[in-house]
Design a protein that fits this description.
The protein is an alpha/beta fold. The chain folds into 5 domains: about 80 residues; about 120 residues, OB fold (Dihydrolipoamide Acetyltransferase, E2P); about 90 residues, no CATH class; about 190 residues, P-loop containing nucleotide triphosphate hydrolases (Rossmann fold); about 160 residues, 3-Layer(aba) Sandwich (Rossmann fold). It has 27 helices and 21 strands. A hairpin with a 2-residue loop joins strand 5 and strand 6. Helix 11 crosses helix 27 and helix 12 runs antiparallel to helix 14. It is extended and about 110 Å long. It binds adenosine-5'-diphosphate and magnesium ion. The site of magnesium ion has 5 residues, from helix 14.
């Protein structure tokens, strides 16, 4: 129809000349279209007349042509108006009473005694409106004081604020309607005499809907009781109904929704949930949703007096709503928009506290005067060490080492993190840094997260350092007492220049004479508190941390926001990329034949398992079991080693050394080999139950091969039937980029999993998500920098300072418990 309108308009514009189109004239086009138009449309007669008139259009005078065109346009306009649907009906209105809340905190206390001064630390049992029984239940959720409860955020919301007309209801969504009762009918279920059903037929100007309510129990089945229910919903009454819309044989329907009879369509609803966004909380036995909401309503008014730790002008600039309002709204949102704003504010606060903490610590770390460590130019230890290496440093290694050495030469302590994918060669960079410190007359410490790794570092150092006349020792949990005593003496009198070890280095009797630099390898395996403990041992040691777990920026900012970051973003040359293949458990034989081929060529293979011993519950293949099978049945002609965390340290070391030396060709291991282990001849990595590992962890494991020139293989055995498991593992087949993989892992499994359960430095975030709230995190970091830039001691932000102190106290307490 609009093409006809356009044609008419054009004809009028051109002065009624019966325009020639591409195929026909204007008059022919109109006659044809009018004749063929749907006869079901109004006024078909008139269209046929018009069509006939247009057939003779060519013979008409210009004036008659003009009249005909006008008549036709009028007809089409009328047609369009009659076809257009009436303007859709807006949603119903509902008047809500003011937010329900408990009596204000300042009213008189019990028994006329003076009002207690309720504050965030008040025990919940003392709050009016929360009885001792409820308080006990709340304690089961770990909620003891007012602050705990206020920070117990809803897990989700039911959107009863979604006010719609009946035709607008969508199956699967929660909604609220305002409707008129047509009929109400109570009966007991034909199949179950103890089940009573009340069925309401409702309508609004757009349609009809059925609502059922179910009552289980003998007493409800009595006719008298059912009649009394029916009387509550007389025909013609207005009701507000909130609930989830479900599919039923009669179309969309409500089952057991919240219903309130309104005195008139304009009367306010009294029910506290109808028409609102309803918070949904995690509950515990004996504590129902209603009781928890009541308790919440009792404490929320107190929040009003807590004030806002952020100054008003800052809030305005950053578009943050004030904190008391945010806390109230997150539990009791008036609108989706306010809920979003509240969440933003509270997430921002969590990140802000985190960032202020990290940046403050950064200042503490770096503002202390340090001894500048500068190796003499020319024939320095570092130069001689690099000459010993069979390879030149990559450009990235050289750049990072230069960055570190520049830091060390300053009169401020270094706090730097070196990030580099597995195999990028972080160890030589670390040694270069340690030798710089030693050259300057100080001692160095190298800390590794596992004994296996500490021992490996020590063996490498033992191959080089004697040639440089640098003394070096290993200290782990399994160092014999005598050796340990000797070593501590040498350390204290400065004889010993370099100490390598596990967190045994943190123990109290370990005292250095002149600790200059601490290197923490695979730092993601340590908690922040642990690395701080080591720092406390020296006067002002410089700190270098290294990690191979490439972590997404949000995590990096959250965990290492106190560190300067260097990237080794280049792998040493000559590495052939690792081929990763996904196999089903039933294709295990392919893995074994590949191992056989590679071993025949002088290479070696790892077989990694998630467990040490057989687990009946999980039905997983364990390292011990697989080792038995491989050594006895599959590869009786090969030497198969075994390595797992429960073995004594010496046994572990033996197993690794045998594998490194080629005495065993296959090593069955748990994830003990995950970090750091470096055997260049290994070219096959088989990972059993790969679906049970995180992607970042698999990437680490895969990094154990491909360290020499030979082409390497990683075979992931997937025993899960879940499509998602395969999809996840496919990321590894496709990508060798650690950052990409970590980013995916964060999305799929969350931060705790990405970092491994041992990461104790992870902030406790109640609401914020490291995978979704990256933008808020950046905002918080910027604001934290701004605040500390103007007010480094937080003298003008007392509330923020208090929160920070509380958070620190909690973190230290948590560390002590660990
Ligand atoms: P990671 O960064 O994973 O700790 P390593 O320090 O263990 O990596 O180094 C991996 C392997 O690469 C080691 O065998 C190491 O000797 C070797 N390597 C390190 N730097 C270079 C280089 N510049 N050229 C060649 N090989 C190197
Ligand atoms: Mg390493």
């Amino acid at each position: 129809m609009s093409t006809l309108q356009q044609a008419l308009q054009l004809e009028a514009d051109r002065g009624f000349t019966d325009l020639m189109g591409r195929r026909e004239r204007f008059s022919g086009f109109l006659a044809r279209n009018l004749r063929e138009a749907d006869p079901a449309m109004p006024e078909p007669q008139q269209r046929q007349e018009l069509a006939a008139a247009f057939e003779g259009y060519g013979e008409l005078s210009p004036g008659r042509r003009q009249t005909l065109v006008r008549r036709c346009r009028e007809h089409l306009h009328a047609l369009r108006r009659s076809l257009q649907p009436a303007t859709p009906m807006g949603p119903p209105r509902l008047r809500l009473t003011a937010t329900p809340s408990a009596p204000p905190a300042s009213t008189e206390g019990r028994g006329g005694a003076p009002a207690p001064a309720w504050n965030p630390e008040s025990p919940l049992g003392e709050i009016r409106g929360i009885g001792p029984r409820t308080a006990a239940r709340l304690a089961q959720l770990g909620l003891f004081v007012v602050r705990d409860l206020v920070h117990y955020y809803p897990r989700d919301y039911l959107d009863y604020a979604n006010l719609v007309r009946i035709t607008g209801l969508e199956v699967g969504r929660t909604a609220t309607i305002v409707a008129t009762v047509r009929r109400c009918h109570g009966f007991s279920s034909p199949r179950n005499p103890n089940l009573a059903i009340l069925e309401l037929h409702l309508s609004d100007p757009t349609g009809r809907i059925r609502v059922s309510r179910f009552f289980a129990g003998r007493r409800f089945a009595s006719p008298g009781w059912l009649k009394s229910q029916e009387r509550q919903y007389p025909p013609g009454a207005t009701v507000a109904v909130s609930g989830l819309v479900k599919e039923s044989p009669y179309g969309p329907a409500f089952q057991d929704p919240l219903i309130e009879v309104l005195e008139s369509p304009q009367a306010p609803v009294r029910h506290s949930a109808i028409g609102r966004l309803m918070p949904v909380y995690g509950l515990t036995e004996g504590l129902g949703a209603d009781r928890l909401r009541q308790a919440m309503a009792a404490v929320l008014p107190l929040v009003e007096q807590w004030g806002d730790p952020l100054p008003a002008d800052l809030r305005r600039v950053e578009q943050l709503i004030d904190r008391p309002q945010a806390l109230q709204q997150i539990h009791n949102p008036s609108t989706q928009e306010l809920l979003r704003a509240s969440r933003h504010r509270l997430v921002f606060d969590e990140f802000l506290l985190l960032q202020v903490g990290l940046l403050t610590r950064r200042r503490e770390l770096t503002s202390r005067p340090a001894q500048p460590l500068q190796s003499p130019g020319g024939d320095s230890l570092v130069t001689r060490f690099l000459a010993l290496l069979p390879f030149p440093l990559t450009a990235a290694q050289q750049r990072v080492l230069d960055e570190i050495r520049a830091d060390l030469a300053r009169e401020q302590t270094m706090a730097r993190l070196v990030q580099g994918d597995v195999g990028s060669g972080k160890t030589v960079v670390a040694i270069g840094a340690l030798l710089t410190a030693i050259d300057a007359g100080c001692q160095g410490a190298l800390m590794a997260p596992t004994e296996v790794l500490a021992e490996q570092h020590f063996r490498k150092l033992a191959a080089w350092l004697p040639q440089l006349h640098v003394s070096c020792a290993l200290l782990t949990g399994s160092t014999p007492a005598r050796r340990r005593r000797e070593l501590l003496t040498d350390l204290a009198n400065g004889q010993l220049q370099l100490l390598v070890g596990t967190h045994a280095l943190l123990e109290d009797p370990v005292a250095f004479a002149r600790l200059g630099l601490v290197v923490v390898d695979e730092q993601h395996r340590f908690g922040v508190a642990q690395r701080n403990r080591l720092l406390a041992k020296g006067l002002q040691p410089h700190l270098l941390t290294m990690t191979a777990t490439p972590i997404p920026r949000t995590l990096a900012l959250s965990l290492h926001g106190d560190l300067e970051v260097s990237q080794i973003d280049e792998l040493p040359p000559g590495r052939t990329p690792i081929r990763t293949t996904l196999l089903r458990g039933s294709e295990r034989d392919r893995a074994y034949s590949l191992i056989r081929d590679e071993v025949a060529r002088g290479q070696r293979a790892y077989v990694v398992l998630p467990l040490v011993e057989e687990s009946e519950k999980l039905d997983l293949r364990s390292a011990v079991e697989v080792h038995r099978q491989l050594s006895q049945e599959i590869f009786p002609d090969l030497m198969v080693g075994l390595l797992h965390g429960r073995m004594a340290s010496q046994e572990k070391q033996k197993a690794i050394q045998a594998f490194a030396a080629g005495q065993s060709q296959v090593l069955v291991s748990t994830t003990v080999v995950e970090v750091g282990v470096d055997v260049p001849e290994a070219s096959v990595m088989v990972i059993e139950h790969a679906e049970r590992f995180g992607l970042a962890q698999l990437h680490q494991l895969r990094g154990r091969v491909g360290r020499g020139a030979a082409a390497s293989h990683c075979l992931l055995l997937n025993d899960s039937r879940q499509a998602q498991a395969k999809q996840r593992l496919d990321v590894l087949v496709r990508s060798t980029d650690g950052f990409e993989i970590a980013e995916m892992d964060l999305r799929l499994r969350g931060p705790g999993q990405v970092l491994g359960t041992r990461q104790s430095g992870l902030p406790d975030l109640a609401l914020a998500s490291l995978s979704d709230d990256g933008a808020v995190l950046e905002q918080a970091r910027r604001v934290a920098q701004q605040i500390l830039g103007q007010d480094p001691e937080l003298a003008h932000h007392p509330q923020l300072a208090a929160l920070l102190a509380r958070q620190r106290a909690r973190l230290t307490a948590a560390v002590r418990l660990n």
